[in-house]
Amino acid sequence: MVVTYLIVGLFVTSSNTIVLADMSEENGACDTLFNDMLLDQTCCISERFPEDQSKCKIPEDEDKMCDFYKCVVAEQNVLTDDEIDEGKLKEFFDQWEKDYPKEKAMTLRARTGCLNGKYLEYINKDNCLEARLYFCMYINSFMECQSWKESDRCTKVKEHAQKCKDVQGMK
Known about the structure:
Protein name: (apollo) hypothetical protein
Organism: Parnassius apollo (Apollo butterfly)
Keywords: Signal
Largest sheet: 2 strands, antiparallel
Oligomer: single chain
């Protein structure tokens, strides 16, 4: 699980520009939430966040991060001929819903926020499609976290997630 969180943090800090759907300048809570100092997925207690992605190694060269995201997405079996397959992505969400019934809100939010090409809206267009899909699924799942670890840091992250969710109309 720590690997996943580290990866997202690395990605956020290396992507420089994070653009959420319908993001406006006054939505500081969203900007703050995804600031590398606050981003801490370990605060969200969830069965769905993978414990280990050891098949997909984080490259030392930042320019090769796309290879990592391609590996992660390929492991989820949502690609056809190295392209994101919307039909397979829908099947993936269907399986998530079956595997994690207690986290239905997370699945629904990710499904709604990422299907039909909506994942293209989440980070700048210079990033590879697989990175954009990964980030979209992460953000939408995180916004619907139902169980948070108890700590000052996690309380702060939870507050920013709720504020961001409110300004994004994700009630």
